[in-house]
């Protein structure tokens, strides 16, 4: 997913399909023939001078050339359209001409999308290309925007039917002709105007689809606060329209280049953040604020997200929408899947489903059609899945935005989590047949499948909802909250304040809460499943923050640790992403928890198993370093406790014994520093730097920091590269100061994850960067003069 998170990202998908289809035409847009007329038109279109429209030719000339070139009469129709669309026209004849043009383009575009285009066009130049080349796109934009013009104080009006035809033709041209969408995107006044066309239900779907495509290629993000009467527009949408509108919102509230991608360097992100601070809020942030200011907006999204299939739109209105989809090529593949599923289930049930042809009304439908338009359950489910995908994406983005706490409060109040819990078995993680709900050209496990995408978007939402927020306890039901209290009571420790403060009227109902349901499906997930990564991330987010013994025990009692170890050791997982998520989760689950280490030792009960586990850890420290950090921190705490249970674990646990050895710690430390550099630091691997600092902070506590630095120096010399590691570490620590001491950086994550005060982090870094070569704890004391290279400029403009 991604873009944008990824999982909604439908606009990007259309962009890719459009690019693929343009390539499939064999590049017809490059060198037009016959003669030089088309070349002149293209040049005029690019330069704004010379020939650019059909109106610049005579009808006789166009008719003669059409006989040779087979332009399907499109230039002549455009000439008539221009003549009948002047300001004082009644537009009746204009609409008739549009009706002639529309099928010439729609048939071509349908073939374009459905990949049945090899022999569909006898003419040298596709109709959409000719339509655009002779000025058709610009003319339709002018016609659509006529209502913005006032004559004697009165604004012109055009019918919804005419607007619909114009939008249909524009979209078909965008699909088939390269560059049209980008040209429309440059017309900012037109893009803003399009939003006003969504006030009519008759033109809503066509308008929304065209806007989404345009925004997908627009270089600068549109600002929703510039849309006239935005609050009124959105408030008047019915639930079906609001769900479709979320497709547009997915583009307008996601940062165009968020910098949150793990592959973006922190140098680049920091530079971007400095630039953003001087420019003020981004367009995406402004758009998020604009939406949150609309009364009832989040509440309606929550209702859409939690609506059961039985509560969805009735059959008649859904059929009407499918009829619209039939003419809107963006949804052709979805419709293909819907129709195929319907046919399969119809044959199975020995029943038929009658879809009215485009343009047919309910009054003209066949006799007894009411008994033959009952949609199969799987089609209703598909309908809800497609809606919920978009809605969950928007909620997820809002949860990660600047107004996160406000969104959290509203989501809790409107019972999103209990609602999703009630849908978990029947919709989100339902069982389905191998043939159901898979898009044409894809398989069931493909990330493009609506079923797959819904699950991933759901898991991303849970991750965002739980991460470092006390509302995470809404994922439990009342009985499970009582269990947390009982765990704290038995361990003779204070109850977590957030548990005590949880509003019991807002938690999950039923026998199991959402977190427990997630654990159940997680343990049943096949080894090769793409969901493992997202499931582990969602559960880990529940544990993040200040370590809670009760939270850990709640998950340990449900066999989570054994499941993780099975996946790492016994299934010998090969996916780097899944391994990283499992190591991170295991670290949070075991940190400071004696019972977890006992369970670990009970499962990893042979040297052979332990060696497999170590092999997985050492295969990629970028993936496993968070576990190394958690075990190192736990060892330090256990060594300072006087308790028989702790002493027993210290003496028996293979993992603690392994980490306690200084050569092991030095091996980790050397490799952690060596695999990262300032220029390659990302959100994904910066944890290696912080883990190396944890090892040195704990050494400093024991007054062993000089020893560790001296050992690093020796390891450098043994590799025949004196100075290369410590110089690199010096640069990394200088960057650490710039990155973490910035006033906008939140240091609580480092404190909560390590239980080491941030002041101690800062002091340790300062001591290591001390320029005094006489200091036994300064890095420069261990870098020989000829190899000193600590003042390199690593800033990125």
UniProtKB/TrEMBL annotation:
Residues 362-374 have a biased composition (Polar residues). SUPFAM superfamilies: ARM repeat (SSF48371). GO terms for biological process: hair follicle maturation; protein ubiquitination; ubiquitin-dependent protein catabolic process; ubiquitin-dependent protein catabolic process via the C-end degron rule pathway. InterPro entries: ARM-type_fold (IPR016024), TRPC4AP (IPR022162). It comes from the Eukaryota. Residues 349-374 are annotated as: Disordered. GO terms for molecular function: phosphatase binding; ubiquitin-like ligase-substrate adaptor activity. GO terms for cellular component: Cul4A-RING E3 ubiquitin ligase complex; cytosol. This is Transient receptor potential cation channel subfamily C member 4 associated protein. It comes from Bos taurus. The lineage of its organism: Eukaryota, Metazoa, Chordata, Craniata, Vertebrata.
């Amino acid at each position: 997913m991604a873009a944008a998170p990824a999982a909604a990202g439908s606009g990007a998908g259309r962009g890719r399909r459009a690019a693929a289809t343009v390539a499939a035409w064999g590049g017809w847009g490059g060198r037009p023939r016959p003669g030089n007329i088309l070349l002149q038109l293209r040049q005029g279109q690019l330069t704004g001078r010379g020939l650019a429209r059909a109106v610049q030719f005579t009808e006789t000339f166009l008719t003669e050339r059409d006989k040779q070139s087979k332009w399907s009469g499109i230039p002549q129709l455009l000439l008539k359209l221009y003549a009948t669309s002047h300001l004082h026209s009644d537009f009746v004849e204009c609409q008739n001409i549009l009706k002639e043009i529309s099928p010439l383009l729609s048939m071509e575009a349908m073939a374009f999308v459905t990949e049945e285009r090899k022999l569909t066009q006898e003419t040298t130049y596709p109709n959409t290309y000719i339509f655009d080349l002779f000025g058709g796109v610009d003319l339709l934009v002018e016609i659509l925007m006529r209502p913005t013009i006032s004559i004697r104080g009165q604004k012109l009006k055009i019918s919804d039917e005419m607007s619909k035809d114009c939008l249909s033709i524009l979209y078909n041209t965008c699909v088939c002709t390269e560059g049209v969408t980008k040209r429309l995107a440059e017309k900012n006044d037109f893009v803003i105007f399009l939003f006003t066309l969504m006030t009519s239900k008759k033109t809503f779907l066509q308008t929304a689809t065209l806007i989404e495509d345009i925004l997908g290629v627009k270089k600068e993000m549109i600002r929703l606060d510039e849309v006239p009467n935005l609050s009124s527009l959105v408030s008047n949408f019915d639930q079906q329209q609001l769900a479709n509108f979320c497709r547009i919102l997915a583009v307008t509230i996601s940062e165009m280049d968020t910098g949150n991608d793990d592959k973006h360097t922190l140098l680049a992100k920091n530079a971007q953040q400095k630039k953003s601070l001087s420019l003020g809020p981004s367009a995406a942030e402004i758009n998020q604020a604009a939406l949150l200011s609309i009364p009832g907006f989040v509440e309606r999204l929550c209702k859409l997200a939690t609506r059961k299939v039985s509560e969805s739109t009735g059959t008649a209105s859904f059929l009407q929408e499918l009829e619209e989809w039939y003419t809107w090529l963006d949804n052709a593949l979805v419709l293909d899947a819907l129709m195929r599923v319907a046919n399969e289930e119809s044959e199975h049930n020995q029943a038929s489903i009658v879809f009215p042809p485009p343009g047919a009304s309910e009054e003209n439908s066949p006799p007894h059609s009411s008994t033959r338009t009952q949609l199969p359950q799987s089609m209703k489910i598909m309908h809800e899945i497609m809606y919920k995908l978009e809605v969950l994406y928007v909620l997820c983005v809002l949860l990660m935005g600047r107004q996160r706490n406000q969104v959290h409060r509203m989501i809790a109040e409107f019972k999103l989590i209990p609602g999703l819990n009630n849908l978990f078995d029947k919709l989100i993680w339902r069982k389905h047949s191998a043939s159901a709900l898979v898009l044409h050209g894809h398989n069931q496990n493909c990330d493009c499948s609506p079923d797959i995408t819904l699950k991933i978007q759901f898991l991303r939402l849970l991750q965002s909802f739980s991460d470092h927020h006390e509302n995470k306890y809404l994922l439990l039901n009342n009985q499970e909250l009582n269990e947390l209290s009982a765990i704290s009571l038995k361990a003779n420790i204070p109850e977590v304040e957030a548990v005590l403060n949880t509003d019991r009227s807002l938690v999950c109902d039923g026998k199991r809460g959402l977190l427990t349901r997630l654990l159940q499906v997680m343990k049943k997930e096949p080894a090769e499943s793409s969901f493992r990564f997202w499931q582990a991330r969602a559960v880990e987010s529940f544990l993040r923050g200040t370590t809670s013994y009760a939270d850990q025990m709640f998950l340990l009692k449900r066999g989570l640790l054994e499941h993780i170890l099975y996946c790492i050791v016994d299934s010998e997982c090969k996916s780097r992403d899944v391994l990283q998520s499992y190591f991170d989760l295991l670290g949070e689950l075991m940190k400071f928890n004696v019972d977890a280490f006992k369970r670990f030792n009970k499962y990893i009960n042979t040297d052979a198993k332990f060696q497999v586990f170590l092999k997985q850890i050492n295969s990629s420290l970028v993936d496993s370093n968070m576990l190394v950090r958690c075990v190192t921190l736990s060892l330090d705490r256990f060594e300072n406790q006087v308790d028989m249970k702790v002493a027993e674990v210290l003496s028996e646990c293979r993992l603690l014994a392994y980490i306690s050895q200084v050569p092991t710690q030095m091996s980790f430390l050397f490799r952690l520093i060596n695999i990262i550099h300032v220029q390659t630091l990302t959100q994904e691997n910066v944890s290696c730097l912080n883990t190396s600092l944890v090892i040195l902070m704990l050494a400093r506590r024991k007054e062993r920091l000089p020893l560790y630095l001296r050992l690093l120096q020796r390891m450098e010399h043994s590799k025949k590269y004196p100075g290369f590691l410590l110089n690199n570490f010096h640069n990394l620590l200088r960057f650490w100061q710039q990155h973490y001491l910035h006033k906008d950086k939140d240091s609580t994550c480092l404190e909560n994850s390590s239980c080491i005060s941030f002041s101690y982090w800062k002091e340790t870094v300062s001591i290591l960067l001390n320029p005094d070569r006489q200091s036994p704890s300064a890095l420069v004391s261990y870098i020989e003069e000829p190899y000193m290279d600590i003042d390199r400029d690593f800033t990125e403009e």
